[in-house]
Write a structure and sequence with these properties.
The chain is an alpha/beta fold. The protein has six helices and five strands. Strand 3, helix 2 and strand 4 form a beta-alpha-beta unit.
Length: 192
């Protein structure tokens, strides 16, 4: 569900620093991509019904606590930008999106600017779920987010992962970075 103040696809001005309106593009009702929401935008993201944020960068130290206070699950999959993306990383993120959707959660997938990594991973999800060729998946993402611009290496790694229209099975577990809940502190050791 979109709130009236959210950017639309017709907005070609792009995100502005310190703008209170989150830069979110909806691919479908429970799946959005965008740039990293700034702290003042996080409440607006939650107001859109988003309850899971999958981030493709390493969160700032206070970021998990900030999202948790809003009732949003933050799941980081740090991925280097401007380079090839490992096949295992595609599979892990696609699996996570699928898992969150099966739990009835609405997902925002974001990187820093929402131009390279997030659209590439969103296309991977569409390739896998809808059995789409890479070019068709990228076109669907571009329709929702015209400013997307994955690098050649990112697209080539997506093509390799998709295996000519046969993406890998993603049922086997893949390790990921798991952050402890923000309110959990390490227990003091009882050992001398």
């Amino acid at each position: 569900m979109r709130a009236p103040h959210v950017r639309t696809n017709a907005d070609t001005t792009g995100p502005q620093p310190n703008d209170d309106i989150p830069d979110v593009a909806w691919l479908e009702p429970a799946f959005a991509i965008g740039r990293r929401p700034d702290p003042p935008q996080r409440r607006q993201v939650r107001a859109l019904g988003i309850d899971t944020v999958i981030t493709l960068h390493t969160p700032d130290p206070d970021e998990p606590r900030s999202w948790e206070a809003l009732g949003v699950r933050l799941i980081p999959y740090p991925t280097v930008d401007w380079e090839e993306i490992a096949a295992g990383r595609f599979s892990a993120v696609v699996r996570e999106i699928q898992t969150q959707h099966r739990m009835g959660r609405t997902v925002l997938l974001h990187c820093i600017m929402g131009i390279n990594r997030a659209p590439t991973f969103a296309a991977a999800f569409l390739c896998w779920r809808d059995n789409l060729p890479v070019d068709d998946a990228l076109a669907r993402v571009r329709h929702a987010r015209p400013t997307m611009d994955p690098t050649r290496d990112q697209v080539n790694s997506l093509r390799a992962w998709n295996g000519g229209g046969n993406p890998p099975a993603i049922n086997a577990p893949v390790p990921k970075l798991i952050l402890p809940p923000a309110n959990r502190r390490p227990r003091p050791s009882s050992r001398p």
